[in-house]
């Protein structure tokens, strides 16, 4: 899909490289396990079915989990008005618009492509942000759709589930399979567990690195489209500050959607933890927006 969002070849390259490396990782993983497990085909089929379901119905699943509902222009004129203007500026199809009644200030985009995309914001976000700030957040989410990274991160994130499924299948087949439990069987089981753990860890790190970069790319694209990096920086600062004041127990319910959120429900608390985070730190994002503002000749956020 072509749009007026600034093309990001580095993001495209990273998405291709990540999917290529994950593909190699899982081809080797499945090939090794075929030798170790008799019924691996069943696991792969189940994983493929679940992946297909997540790919085709990810928008519905996300809206249901976040208690979101589709809204009309009559119900949310301000929200639709901002998205209408941004889509006209970006020359891209308008996604469906949804609202979640959660007080957690956040937004996300999901869907397998631009024609089946949905942008959802929480009432906590619309209540806290000025129109220019809301415009920056929504431009950020629309750039995810334009760059196609929503579908890529959905597929990439799910591949790690295969390793977990294999571990469970191997465990229960040995526990209830009734086969001989000699030293060879124990060694095979240990190898399955070890290979699965390594594959999961490597895929986890690859996906997290891609996720952090795509957030920086979306910030950059949104700032260039709107020409207002300071408004996006203001929204980031405001949302991050308000999230920090929400009780942790309430944030944990939304943490599963961190990879899709505008800002994470629970952020990383240290440099090491940042390697496992879905988002760059607030300071890193503000620094990148300040650089864009300088290039545009505007006031640094």
Short description:
This protein has 11 helices and 4 strands; from the N terminus they run ααβαβββαααααααα.
Characterization of the model:
It is a single chain. The chain is mainly alpha-helical and 301 residues long. Helix content is 67%, strand content 6%. It has eleven helices and four strands, in the order ααβαβββαααααααα. It has helices spanning 9-36, 40-65, 77-90, 123-128, 131-146, 149-176, 183-226, 229-244, 248-252, 271-274, 282-296; strands at residues 68-70, 96-100, 107-110, 118-122. The chain has a four-stranded mixed beta sheet with strand order 1-2-4-3, sandwiched between helices. β3 (107-110) and β4 (118-122) form a beta hairpin.
Keyphrases for this structure?
6% strand; 11 helices; 301 residues; mainly alpha; four-stranded mixed β-sheet; metal-binding
Number of strands: 4
Give the helix tally. 11
Q: What is the terminal separation in angstroms?
A: 31 Å
- Are there runs of 5+ residues with pLDDT below 50, and where? none
What is the ordering of alpha helices and beta strands?
Answer: HHEHEEEHHHHHHHH
- Sequence of strands across the biggest β-sheet: 1-2-4-3
Tally of distinct domains: 1
As a whole number of angstroms, the C-alpha radius of gyration is 21 Å
Secondary-structure-derived class: mainly alpha
Q: Mean of the pLDDT scores?
A: 79
The description of the largest β-sheet is:
4 strands, mixed
Helix content: 55-70%
- Beta percentage is 5-15%
* Rough outline: elongated
